[in-house]
Specification:
The chain is mainly alpha-helical. It has one domain. The chain has 5 helices and no strands. The two termini are about 20 Å apart. About 30% of the residues are buried.
Length: about 140
């Protein structure tokens, strides 16, 4: 039997947050840079987009899992532990990884290079997360 750190729900929530934060953070940066926005507008829009999208993702996780358990008649006694905490983990991971995805825009002066670096960092981190999950689940690379 596979033992996941901090339980299955928290682990999956963290993984969903990692994937979502990187994907949305990078896609916002690339899309807005194509539109030709100035760096400060790009950063503010990316930050707002990451927070809103992360909150949306976490709230959908909370409500869908809670609702499905209600439909199945398996509703947990502790909504905080079984529904809210995994959603909070997803939101935090989403936000942290979204910031990491746009991080190159803060430290690299050349905007085109910063965007390319953001995409590269995102691809490498998503690959590392996938490889880590596969290794944890006994997959061979």
């Amino acid at each position: 039997m596979l033992r996941l750190p901090f339980g299955t729900r928290a682990f999956l929530a963290a993984f969903e947050g990692i994937e979502g934060g990187f994907a949305v953070g990078t896609s916002i940066v690339v899309a807005l840079s194509i539109a030709g926005l100035e760096r400060h507008l790009l950063l503010v829009t990316a930050a707002v987009g990451i927070v809103v999208s992360g909150f949306n993702s976490a709230s959908v996780k909370y409500s869908s899992e809670h609702y499905l358990d209600e439909l199945d008649g398996r509703e947990k006694k502790s909504a905080l532990r079984h529904y809210f905490l995994p959603s909070l983990v997803e939101f935090i991971c989403y936000g942290l990884l979204g910031v990491l995805a746009v991080g190159p825009l803060f430290i690299v002066a050349n905007l085109s290079f910063a965007i390319a670096l953001s995409v590269l960092v995102t691809l490498l981190m998503l690959f590392a997360a996938g490889a880590g999950v596969a290794a944890r689940m006994g997959g061979r690379g």
